Amino acid sequence: MIQLKTQLTLEEFLALPQGDIISELIDGEAVPEFKNDVISPKFFHRSITNALSILLSAWAQGKGRVVIEWAIKLTRNQQDWLPVPDLTYISYNRLSADWLQDEACPVAPELVIEIISPGQTFPEMIEKATDYLKAKVQRVWIIDTRAKTITIFYHHILLQTKRGTDRLEDSLFEGLQITPQQIFLQAKISY
């Protein structure tokens, strides 16, 4: 007997019981954020996430929110998509300062940051970054903790890879002046 798999709607996915494993809604399926039994995040991943949260939150005071592992309501291939980036920045222009709901982010943020985890590949992350951009996210940073690089994805501009003392300056994030080296030093990961 052939069993047909039912795709979850966004509402059904959001109604699933929450467990210890973070899942994303991808093509109607609840997909765990780990692959091949490699559970993430590891020490470098968490340390970079914390360092970025500290550095970006200091810059974002009065401008917007910096949130760790916050699901975002987007669309991908004309289907509901609920990714959970490692870090999100959304300005108060896109989501007002008085918005206070315990739910997924209802609009595309300016920035999502993904840190490559064990079991993930850079080509997979490029595909995910492309999906974010198609869903109206303005910038995507992919961080490689092994290479100590940050690759920035833009709409209609070639990607850029930053390392060392290269500045992560961007007209979208006026006044933000940090470098990959600062991020890795803040995370206490030798540079």
What are the salient characteristics of this protein?
six-stranded mixed sheet, 4 helices, two-stranded antiparallel ribbon, 191 residues, 23% helix
Task: Give an overview of the whole structure.
The protein contains four helices and ten strands, in the order αββαβββββαβββα. With 191 residues, it is α+β, with helices and mostly antiparallel strands. Strands 3-6-7-8-9-10 form a six-stranded mixed sheet, with helices on both faces. It has a two-stranded antiparallel ribbon with strand order 1-2. Strands 4-5 form a two-stranded antiparallel sheet. The model has no long low-confidence stretch (mean pLDDT 87).
Topology record:
Layout: H1 10-15, E1 23-26, E2 29-32, H2 43-60, E3 64-68, E4 74-76, E5 79-81, E6 87-91, E7 111-115, H3 122-134, E8 139-144, E9 149-153, E10 160-163, H4 180-186
Parallel strand pairs: 7-8
Antiparallel strand pairs: 1-2, 3-6, 4-5, 6-7, 8-9, 9-10
Measured by DSSP, the beta-strand proportion falls in 15-25%
Number of helices: 4
Strand adjacency order, main sheet: 3-6-7-8-9-10
Helix content: 10-25%
Q: Note the main sheet.
A: 6 strands, mixed
Determine the oligomeric state from the structure. Answer: single chain
Give, in order, the helices and strands: HEEHEEEEEHEEEH
Unreliable parts: none
Q: Using only CA atoms, what is the Rg?
A: 17 Å
Question: What is the overall silhouette?
Answer: globular
Number of E strands:
10
Q: What is the CA–CA distance across the termini? A: 57 Å
The overall average pLDDT, rounded, is: 87
